[in-house]
Amino acid sequence: MNVATILQRLPCWRASLITLVVVAAVGCQSVERVAVAAEPTPNPALASRSACQKADSMWNDKIVPSRYTQLPALTSPGFLDLLTLITGRFALKALTTQGDELEAGRGKLIHAFGAEARLRLAINPTAIDSYTGIFHSGAPCVIGRFSLATKPAQDTSIPGLALKIFIDGDQASVNLLLMHSIDEQAGHNYFAQTFSNILPAPRAFAKRMLASGFERSAVQFGAKDPNPGRLTLENLAGIQVNGQRIASPRTPYQILFRPTALARALMQGASALDDFRLKLAGLAVGQAVYDIYTLAEGDSPENARLLGQLLLTAPVVSSRYGDDKLYFQHNMARQ
């Protein structure tokens, strides 16, 4: 049972008391800036490995062998899980921890269930010189995770997408997290809405509290912009797949992932009884799942410029490794 449901079902005085406890827990945290995370220890074993070899290893050695024979039931975070998220310490780890796997003892409190895909980020020839880094080179070997933030309700769902882009040599992957909103969308078509790195302010009380906790963590992190609804793209613009660093990156302000007509049609009419993971397995290999656009700051969506496409290169699978270990760092630029 999630926070919103608990508050709705409790007598008014108890719901108010819980709200006060949550607010107090958030307010009592220190806002002292945390130290910059140390650079990972060099790993000579990775020095000669290409980005695609890294993706192959994760896919073939970890994801595929741990495919579910029976999908686990979808669940929502409980009250203590939401309290952990709201108080911010959990979110701070998501900003500061590098790597491709969750630390031992750390689980996914939201977006806990999903499906993994091998993807290719293709840059349109007309946009190849607009930006730098991954937005210039594209990425042939991406691992993505389609997930829902919580168990879908009768009439609503909260989908999200995370992309892990591997880099040649002893270089950390770069990650991109995208959603339409942290509030619920109407219906259960995973591909009904455009995803972006910039989200509207949440409307629901529980989501506003969650955003407040994340913003507090972002302040401790030293983010240039602590708004939790704005994730930077600088990490992608600052490096190419071959490991080359960009001295003066050209970065889009906003990126838009618009589902293709084929993707939208796949889940047209889906209901709460349809497991989104089974539906996603119906995506055809070679299919473009998203058309990708960029927006300059202040521009309206009508002025979006085509950047490229995200294409599926292997059948979508659901795996225990994806649910229990696969990790995507949140992207916020520091001051």
How would you summarize the topology of this molecule?
Layout: H1 3-9, H2 12-27, H3 51-63, H4 79-86, H5 89-96, E1 113-123, H6 134-137, E2 139-148, E3 156-157, E4 159-165, E5 174-179, E6 185-186, E7 195-196, H7 205-221, H8 234-237, E8 254-259, H9 261-266, H10 276-280, E9 288-295, E10 305-312, H11 320-324
Antiparallel strand pairs: 1-2, 1-10, 2-4, 3-6, 4-5, 7-8, 8-9, 9-10
Helix pairs in contact: 1-2, 4-7, 5-7
Radius of gyration: 20 Å
Global outline: globular
Beta strand %: 15-25%
Question: Which ranges are low-confidence, i.e. pLDDT below 50, for 5 or more consecutive residues?
Answer: 1-31
**Reading side by side through the largest sheet, how are the strands ordered?**
5-4-2-1-10-9-8-7
Give average pLDDT, whole number.
86
Description:
Helices cover 28% and strands 19% of the residues. The chain has 335 residues and is an alpha+beta fold. The chain has a domain at 50-76 and 110-201 and 230-324. It is globular, with a radius of gyration of 20 Å. The model is unreliable at 1-31 (pLDDT under 50).
Please describe the structure with a list of short key phrases separated by commas or semicolons.
11 helices, 19% strand, two-stranded antiparallel sheet, 10 strands, 335 residues, globular, alpha+beta
